[in-house]
Amino acid sequence: xxxxxxxxxxxxxxxxxxxxxxxxxxxxxxxxxxxxxxxxxxxxxxxxxxxxxxxxxxxxxxxxxxxxxxxxxxxxxxxxxxxxxxxxxxxxxxxxxxxxxxxxxxxxxxxxxxxxxxxxxxxxxxxxxxxxxxxxxxxxxxxxxxxxxxxxxxxxxxxxxxxxxxxxxxxxxxxxxxxxxxxxxxxxxxxxxxxxxxxxx
Length: 201
Description:
Blueprint: H1 2-18, E1 19-20, E2 31-32, E3 37-39, E4 44-45, E5 55-60, H2 66-82, E6 89-93, H3 105-115, E7 121-123, H4 129-133, E8 137-138, E9 140-146, E10 151-157, H5 173-182, E11 194-195, E12 197-198
Parallel strand pairs: 5-6, 6-7
Antiparallel strand pairs: 1-11, 2-10, 3-4, 3-7, 5-9, 8-12, 9-10
């Protein structure tokens, strides 16, 4: 009986960690500070480099996580759709390669080439940026809108409501949020639960 109680408790803890909301870092309405991180082409990238951008789709993702892999094609499609409208994807790998060797910078370069990434794929060296944002999962999305005050966080959470099957998606949270910004409308759903692998710091 005691063993069953412990198993049940462990199951609850595992479920809690798999479905995590933003518990620290930025909240919707906060101004996100800029960063300078190394891209897979070995050049440093900052948000300020994108002079014509209206905002940014910042996605913390990685090489090894099954959730992240499931979303790769969708992330490429998002960048192709929205970068020309002023909202490019900026992907950031937050994982420590000493904890997860499959997420090394060299393997980031390999993965990006294999998948044909159309967006910057940056390495969070020293794991300094993801805690500022409050990211806990891969993937974890932060939609930023460029304003006079800075890059304001407008949406936090998941890309959509079905990581397993793109054809079964009912709610495209991120697309709906970007479309609202482009149409000068209020975002209806400003935060959702990020579902993915825990960040390996």
